[in-house]
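Exercise 7. Predict the structure of Extracellular solute-binding protein, family 7 family protein 1 from Achromobacter arsenitoxydans SY8.
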Amino acid sequence: MYKKISLLTGSILLAFSAGAQAQTKWDLPSAYPASNFHVENLTTFIKDVDSLSQGKLKITLHNNASLYKAPEIKRAVQGNQAQIGEILLTNFANEDPVYELDGLPFLATGYDASFKLYQAQKPFLEKKLASQGMTLLYAVAWPPQGIFANKDIKQISDMKGLKWRAYSPVTAKIAELVGAQPVTVQQAELAQALATGVIDSYMSSASTGYDTKTYEYIKKFYDTQAWLPKNAIIVNKKAFDALDPATQEALKKAGAQAEERGWKLSQEKNKWYQAELAKNGMETIAPTVELKEGLSVIGKRMLDDWLKKAGADGQAMIDAYKKQ
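Solution. The predicted structure, encoded as C-alpha coordinates:
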Protein backbone atom coordinates (compact mmCIF):
# COMPACT_ATOMS: atom_id res chain seq x y z
CA MET A 1 0.00 0.00 0.00
CA TYR A 2 2.84 2.35 0.96
CA LYS A 3 4.62 1.66 -2.37
CA LYS A 4 1.42 2.37 -4.30
CA ILE A 5 0.98 5.73 -2.55
CA SER A 6 4.65 6.58 -3.12
CA LEU A 7 4.38 5.70 -6.80
CA LEU A 8 1.19 7.75 -7.13
CA THR A 9 2.74 10.72 -5.33
CA GLY A 10 5.84 10.43 -7.53
CA SER A 11 3.70 10.41 -10.66
CA ILE A 12 1.79 13.52 -9.54
CA LEU A 13 5.02 15.34 -8.70
CA LEU A 14 6.52 14.35 -12.05
CA ALA A 15 3.46 15.60 -13.91
CA PHE A 16 3.48 18.84 -11.92
CA SER A 17 7.20 19.30 -12.61
CA ALA A 18 6.69 18.76 -16.35
CA GLY A 19 3.85 21.29 -16.35
CA ALA A 20 5.97 23.83 -14.49
CA GLN A 21 8.83 23.38 -16.92
CA ALA A 22 6.49 23.78 -19.86
CA GLN A 23 5.58 27.33 -18.79
CA THR A 24 8.22 30.06 -19.02
CA LYS A 25 7.89 33.40 -17.25
CA TRP A 26 9.56 36.57 -18.53
CA ASP A 27 9.73 40.15 -17.25
CA LEU A 28 9.29 43.09 -19.63
CA PRO A 29 10.34 46.53 -18.33
CA SER A 30 9.11 49.70 -20.05
CA ALA A 31 9.74 53.33 -19.09
CA TYR A 32 6.29 54.61 -20.08
CA PRO A 33 2.90 54.93 -18.31
CA ALA A 34 -0.12 52.72 -18.97
CA SER A 35 -1.77 55.51 -20.99
CA ASN A 36 1.06 55.57 -23.55
CA PHE A 37 0.28 53.95 -26.90
CA HIS A 38 3.52 51.93 -26.82
CA VAL A 39 2.40 50.37 -23.53
CA GLU A 40 -1.11 49.79 -24.90
CA ASN A 41 0.53 47.97 -27.81
CA LEU A 42 2.73 45.97 -25.42
CA THR A 43 -0.31 44.91 -23.41
CA THR A 44 -1.94 43.49 -26.55
CA PHE A 45 1.36 41.89 -27.59
CA ILE A 46 1.62 40.08 -24.24
CA LYS A 47 -1.93 38.74 -24.60
CA ASP A 48 -1.08 37.56 -28.14
CA VAL A 49 2.06 35.79 -26.91
CA ASP A 50 0.04 34.01 -24.23
CA SER A 51 -2.58 32.95 -26.77
CA LEU A 52 -0.22 31.97 -29.60
CA SER A 53 2.08 30.02 -27.26
CA GLN A 54 -0.94 28.29 -25.69
CA GLY A 55 0.06 29.64 -22.29
CA LYS A 56 3.63 28.37 -22.45
CA LEU A 57 5.20 31.85 -22.34
CA LYS A 58 3.90 34.30 -19.75
CA ILE A 59 5.25 37.85 -19.89
CA THR A 60 4.80 40.31 -17.01
CA LEU A 61 4.84 43.99 -17.98
CA HIS A 62 6.54 46.46 -15.61
CA ASN A 63 5.64 49.88 -17.03
CA ASN A 64 6.45 53.46 -15.96
CA ALA A 65 10.08 52.60 -15.08
CA SER A 66 8.85 50.54 -12.10
CA LEU A 67 11.44 47.78 -12.59
CA TYR A 68 14.27 49.60 -14.40
CA LYS A 69 14.72 53.21 -15.51
CA ALA A 70 14.89 53.86 -19.25
CA PRO A 71 18.73 53.91 -19.56
CA GLU A 72 19.01 50.68 -17.49
CA ILE A 73 16.67 48.47 -19.53
CA LYS A 74 19.05 47.51 -22.32
CA ARG A 75 21.73 46.35 -19.88
CA ALA A 76 19.12 44.42 -17.89
CA VAL A 77 18.05 42.52 -21.02
CA GLN A 78 21.65 42.01 -22.08
CA GLY A 79 22.44 40.49 -18.67
CA ASN A 80 19.19 38.46 -18.64
CA GLN A 81 17.90 40.17 -15.48
CA ALA A 82 14.91 40.94 -17.72
CA GLN A 83 14.40 38.57 -20.61
CA ILE A 84 12.66 41.13 -22.84
CA GLY A 85 12.45 44.92 -22.70
CA GLU A 86 11.47 48.13 -24.45
CA ILE A 87 14.17 50.69 -25.23
CA LEU A 88 14.35 54.02 -27.01
CA LEU A 89 17.11 53.44 -29.56
CA THR A 90 18.51 56.98 -29.45
CA ASN A 91 19.17 56.59 -25.72
CA PHE A 92 22.16 54.46 -26.70
CA ALA A 93 23.64 56.68 -29.40
CA ASN A 94 26.93 56.88 -27.50
CA GLU A 95 27.30 53.10 -27.71
CA ASP A 96 27.11 52.82 -31.48
CA PRO A 97 26.04 55.07 -34.39
CA VAL A 98 23.35 52.59 -35.49
CA TYR A 99 21.32 53.51 -32.38
CA GLU A 100 21.48 57.21 -33.26
CA LEU A 101 20.26 57.08 -36.85
CA ASP A 102 16.53 57.66 -36.34
CA GLY A 103 17.23 60.62 -34.05
CA LEU A 104 19.00 62.71 -36.69
CA PRO A 105 16.83 65.80 -37.31
CA PHE A 106 15.14 66.13 -40.70
CA LEU A 107 16.62 62.95 -42.17
CA ALA A 108 13.20 61.21 -42.13
CA THR A 109 10.33 63.47 -41.12
CA GLY A 110 7.13 61.54 -41.84
CA TYR A 111 5.86 58.03 -41.16
CA ASP A 112 6.55 56.72 -44.67
CA ALA A 113 10.09 58.08 -44.67
CA SER A 114 10.65 56.86 -41.13
CA PHE A 115 9.56 53.32 -42.02
CA LYS A 116 11.91 53.32 -45.02
CA LEU A 117 14.74 54.44 -42.76
CA TYR A 118 13.89 51.58 -40.40
CA GLN A 119 14.15 49.06 -43.24
CA ALA A 120 17.57 50.42 -44.16
CA GLN A 121 18.69 50.41 -40.52
CA LYS A 122 17.24 47.06 -39.48
CA PRO A 123 19.94 44.60 -40.72
CA PHE A 124 22.67 46.68 -39.05
CA LEU A 125 20.61 47.03 -35.89
CA GLU A 126 20.04 43.27 -35.75
CA LYS A 127 23.76 42.63 -36.27
CA LYS A 128 24.76 45.01 -33.47
CA LEU A 129 22.22 43.63 -31.00
CA ALA A 130 23.29 40.06 -31.85
CA SER A 131 26.89 40.96 -31.03
CA GLN A 132 25.63 42.06 -27.61
CA GLY A 133 23.67 38.85 -27.00
CA MET A 134 20.24 40.18 -27.96
CA THR A 135 17.62 39.85 -30.67
CA LEU A 136 15.44 42.58 -32.18
CA LEU A 137 11.81 41.50 -31.99
CA TYR A 138 10.11 44.63 -33.36
CA ALA A 139 10.25 48.43 -33.41
CA VAL A 140 7.62 51.18 -33.52
CA ALA A 141 8.08 54.90 -34.22
CA TRP A 142 7.00 57.67 -31.90
CA PRO A 143 4.96 60.49 -33.46
CA PRO A 144 7.01 63.33 -35.02
CA GLN A 145 9.06 65.40 -32.61
CA GLY A 146 8.30 69.05 -31.88
CA ILE A 147 9.40 71.69 -29.39
CA PHE A 148 7.55 72.37 -26.13
CA ALA A 149 8.26 75.87 -24.78
CA ASN A 150 6.42 78.91 -23.48
CA LYS A 151 8.84 81.21 -25.29
CA ASP A 152 8.19 82.57 -28.78
CA ILE A 153 10.52 80.63 -31.06
CA LYS A 154 10.74 82.05 -34.55
CA GLN A 155 14.35 81.17 -35.27
CA ILE A 156 17.17 79.09 -33.82
CA SER A 157 18.64 82.01 -31.85
CA ASP A 158 15.39 82.21 -29.83
CA MET A 159 16.26 78.83 -28.26
CA LYS A 160 19.42 80.17 -26.64
CA GLY A 161 19.37 79.89 -22.85
CA LEU A 162 16.37 77.54 -22.61
CA LYS A 163 16.58 74.96 -19.80
CA TRP A 164 16.29 72.06 -22.18
CA ARG A 165 15.39 68.48 -21.29
CA ALA A 166 18.03 66.14 -22.71
CA TYR A 167 16.94 62.49 -22.55
CA SER A 168 19.42 61.12 -25.09
CA PRO A 169 22.78 62.03 -26.66
CA VAL A 170 20.89 63.36 -29.70
CA THR A 171 18.74 65.81 -27.72
CA ALA A 172 21.80 66.87 -25.69
CA LYS A 173 23.66 67.61 -28.95
CA ILE A 174 20.77 69.75 -30.23
CA ALA A 175 20.86 71.74 -26.99
CA GLU A 176 24.57 72.33 -27.47
CA LEU A 177 24.13 73.50 -31.07
CA VAL A 178 21.28 75.93 -30.32
CA GLY A 179 22.83 77.33 -27.13
CA ALA A 180 20.30 75.82 -24.71
CA GLN A 181 21.20 74.39 -21.30
CA PRO A 182 20.82 70.58 -21.40
CA VAL A 183 19.41 68.91 -18.28
CA THR A 184 19.13 65.10 -18.20
CA VAL A 185 15.53 64.15 -17.38
CA GLN A 186 13.88 60.82 -18.21
CA GLN A 187 10.17 60.69 -19.00
CA ALA A 188 9.12 59.28 -15.62
CA GLU A 189 10.57 62.42 -13.94
CA LEU A 190 9.48 64.92 -16.59
CA ALA A 191 6.36 66.32 -14.90
CA GLN A 192 8.25 66.94 -11.68
CA ALA A 193 11.11 68.64 -13.56
CA LEU A 194 8.61 70.99 -15.23
CA ALA A 195 6.75 71.67 -11.98
CA THR A 196 9.95 72.58 -10.11
CA GLY A 197 11.44 74.66 -12.94
CA VAL A 198 14.38 72.33 -13.49
CA ILE A 199 13.52 72.57 -17.21
CA ASP A 200 11.33 74.94 -19.21
CA SER A 201 11.47 73.28 -22.64
CA TYR A 202 12.08 70.04 -24.45
CA MET A 203 11.77 68.31 -27.79
CA SER A 204 9.48 65.29 -28.02
CA SER A 205 6.16 64.12 -29.43
CA ALA A 206 2.60 65.16 -28.63
CA SER A 207 2.34 61.75 -26.99
CA THR A 208 4.90 62.68 -24.34
CA GLY A 209 3.21 66.06 -23.87
CA TYR A 210 -0.08 64.33 -23.12
CA ASP A 211 1.30 61.51 -20.96
CA THR A 212 3.21 63.93 -18.72
CA LYS A 213 0.50 66.63 -18.63
CA THR A 214 3.02 69.12 -20.00
CA TYR A 215 0.06 71.40 -20.81
CA GLU A 216 -0.10 72.25 -17.09
CA TYR A 217 3.25 74.05 -17.42
CA ILE A 218 3.83 74.81 -21.11
CA LYS A 219 1.30 76.25 -23.54
CA LYS A 220 3.10 76.08 -26.90
CA PHE A 221 4.00 73.11 -29.08
CA TYR A 222 6.02 73.90 -32.21
CA ASP A 223 5.18 71.11 -34.66
CA THR A 224 8.60 70.86 -36.31
CA GLN A 225 8.23 67.14 -37.17
CA ALA A 226 11.98 66.92 -36.78
CA TRP A 227 12.33 63.14 -36.54
CA LEU A 228 10.48 59.98 -35.50
CA PRO A 229 12.59 58.04 -33.00
CA LYS A 230 11.76 54.40 -32.46
CA ASN A 231 11.17 52.19 -29.47
CA ALA A 232 12.53 48.69 -29.94
CA ILE A 233 11.51 45.50 -28.19
CA ILE A 234 14.65 43.48 -27.57
CA VAL A 235 15.04 39.92 -26.27
CA ASN A 236 17.92 38.20 -24.51
CA LYS A 237 19.23 35.65 -27.01
CA LYS A 238 19.90 32.92 -24.44
CA ALA A 239 16.37 33.29 -23.10
CA PHE A 240 15.01 33.15 -26.65
CA ASP A 241 17.11 30.10 -27.56
CA ALA A 242 15.85 28.31 -24.43
CA LEU A 243 12.28 28.41 -25.76
CA ASP A 244 10.99 25.47 -27.78
CA PRO A 245 10.64 26.13 -31.54
CA ALA A 246 6.85 26.51 -31.42
CA THR A 247 7.07 29.12 -28.65
CA GLN A 248 9.82 30.97 -30.52
CA GLU A 249 7.54 31.16 -33.55
CA ALA A 250 4.63 32.34 -31.38
CA LEU A 251 6.81 35.14 -29.98
CA LYS A 252 8.00 36.20 -33.43
CA LYS A 253 4.46 36.17 -34.83
CA ALA A 254 3.15 38.26 -31.94
CA GLY A 255 6.07 40.66 -32.48
CA ALA A 256 5.31 41.04 -36.20
CA GLN A 257 1.67 41.76 -35.38
CA ALA A 258 2.69 44.30 -32.73
CA GLU A 259 5.00 46.10 -35.15
CA GLU A 260 2.30 46.46 -37.81
CA ARG A 261 -0.30 47.49 -35.25
CA GLY A 262 2.08 49.87 -33.48
CA TRP A 263 2.98 51.93 -36.55
CA LYS A 264 -0.72 52.38 -37.37
CA LEU A 265 -1.50 53.21 -33.75
CA SER A 266 1.27 55.82 -33.66
CA GLN A 267 -0.26 57.67 -36.61
CA GLU A 268 -3.80 57.46 -35.27
CA LYS A 269 -2.86 58.50 -31.76
CA ASN A 270 -0.70 61.42 -32.94
CA LYS A 271 -3.84 63.26 -34.12
CA TRP A 272 -5.67 62.34 -30.93
CA TYR A 273 -2.79 63.51 -28.71
CA GLN A 274 -2.63 66.88 -30.45
CA ALA A 275 -6.40 67.30 -30.06
CA GLU A 276 -6.11 66.49 -26.35
CA LEU A 277 -3.30 69.03 -25.93
CA ALA A 278 -5.51 71.65 -27.57
CA LYS A 279 -8.41 70.78 -25.24
CA ASN A 280 -6.09 71.44 -22.33
CA GLY A 281 -5.04 74.87 -23.56
CA MET A 282 -1.92 74.10 -25.55
CA GLU A 283 -1.43 75.82 -28.89
CA THR A 284 0.10 73.84 -31.75
CA ILE A 285 2.21 76.19 -33.86
CA ALA A 286 3.60 75.59 -37.33
CA PRO A 287 7.32 76.49 -37.36
CA THR A 288 8.42 79.57 -39.27
CA VAL A 289 10.49 79.17 -42.42
CA GLU A 290 13.46 80.60 -40.49
CA LEU A 291 13.11 78.04 -37.71
CA LYS A 292 12.78 75.15 -40.15
CA GLU A 293 15.82 76.33 -42.08
CA GLY A 294 17.84 76.68 -38.90
CA LEU A 295 16.87 73.22 -37.70
CA SER A 296 17.66 71.78 -41.14
CA VAL A 297 21.18 73.22 -40.93
CA ILE A 298 21.58 71.52 -37.55
CA GLY A 299 20.27 68.29 -39.05
CA LYS A 300 22.77 68.43 -41.90
CA ARG A 301 25.62 69.05 -39.48
CA MET A 302 24.55 66.16 -37.25
CA LEU A 303 24.24 63.84 -40.27
CA ASP A 304 27.74 64.78 -41.45
CA ASP A 305 29.12 64.14 -37.97
CA TRP A 306 27.23 60.85 -37.79
CA LEU A 307 28.60 59.64 -41.13
CA LYS A 308 32.15 60.28 -39.92
CA LYS A 309 31.50 58.07 -36.89
CA ALA A 310 29.43 55.43 -38.68
CA GLY A 311 31.89 54.81 -41.52
CA ALA A 312 31.06 52.34 -44.30
CA ASP A 313 28.06 50.86 -42.47
CA GLY A 314 26.61 54.33 -41.97
CA GLN A 315 26.98 55.22 -45.63
CA ALA A 316 25.42 51.88 -46.57
CA MET A 317 22.37 52.66 -44.41
CA ILE A 318 21.93 56.12 -45.91
CA ASP A 319 22.39 54.77 -49.45
CA ALA A 320 19.82 52.03 -48.82
CA TYR A 321 17.39 54.57 -47.40
CA LYS A 322 17.73 56.93 -50.36
CA LYS A 323 17.26 54.10 -52.89
CA GLN A 324 13.81 53.18 -51.54
